[in-house]
Specification:
It contains 4 helices and 2 strands. The two termini are 20 Å apart. The protein has a two-stranded parallel ribbon with strand order 1-2. By secondary structure, it is α+β, with helices and mostly antiparallel strands.
Length: 68
């Protein structure tokens, strides 16, 4: 495991980076992958993380996404 965030409920996540711009799941993915932006790496995510918005934002940051 490279990075972990504890789910503390909606009120705690509202103040975190990217939340207001992208929503909870995409914001969480962007924060967790930030050290590897621009690396060309592939992120694999389950259905909670998977979404077109997440894939698009990671691609704009030089990464790829595969999700179910």
């Amino acid at each position: 495991m490279l990075h972990i965030e504890i789910c503390e409920g909606k009120l705690r996540h509202i103040d975190q980076k990217h939340y207001h711009e992208f929503g909870h799941t995409t914001a969480t993915t962007l924060r967790m992958t930030e050290p590897w932006h621009g690396s060309g790496r592939v992120v694999f995510g389950d259905s909670w993380f998977a979404g077109l918005k997440t894939a698009r934002e990671l691609l704009e940051r030089g990464m790829h996404f595969i999700g179910d």
